Amino acid sequence: MDSNKNRKESKLKSIFLSYSRKDLKDVKVIAQTLKAAGIRIWQDINSLDFGPTEDQIRNAIKKDCFSLLYYITKNSVGSKFIRDI
User: Fold this and answer.
1) How far is CA 17 from CA 2, 5, 28, 39, in A?
2) What are 31-78's pLDDT values in tens digits?
3) What is the pTM for the complete model shown?
4) SS3 track for 20-80
5) I need a labelling partner for 42 at 20 to 30 A (CA). Which of 12, 25, 36, 74 fits?
6) How far apart are CA 10 and CA 33, in angstroms?
7) HSE-up of 60 (CA within 13 Å, CB side)?
8) Hey, is 81 helix, strand or coil?
9) Where are the domains of the chain?
10) pLDDT tier, 8 (very low <50, low <70, confident <90, very high otherwise)
11) Closest CA to 17 of 84, 68, 80
């Protein structure tokens, strides 16, 4: 039964996209591909509200998303912001 619960829960939640803004052009293509496949995504440029960015991102990772996709590039590996989150 737990696997059914996890599948239902994952259908309601999003995939969190973690990346460097320097790679936004590439990530937009990935996001469009995921959306076209019916996968919900949480992406900062579309999902952030007013308020502390770091808190919203941590909350999304912990509560709103069932998975995290980390787009690894030299830019993202070198990002202090990404490491700190």
Assistant:
1) 26, 23, 10, 12
2) 999 999 999 999 988 898 888 888 899 999 999 999 999 999 999 999
3) 0.77
4) CHHHHHHHHHHHHHHHHCCCCEECHHHHCCCCCHHHHHHHHHHHHEEEEEECCCHHHHCCH
5) 74
6) 18
7) 23
8) helix
9) 2-80
10) very low
11) 68
Dihedral angle of Cα 49, 51, 54, 60, to the nearest 10 degrees: -40
Q: Which residues of 19-32 are buried (b: 16+ CB within 10 A; e: fewer)?
A: bbeebeeebeebbe
- Which residue in this structure is represented by tokens 């998975």? 67
Query: In this structure, what token pair is assigned to residue 4?
Result: 């059914």
CATH architecture of 2-80: 3-Layer(aba) Sandwich (3.40)
Asked if 18 and 76 touch (Cβ cutoff 8 Å), the reply is yes
Q: What residue type is 70 in one-letter code?
A: Y
Instruction: Tell me which residue of 18, 31, 14 sits closest to 57, measured CA to CA.
Output: 18
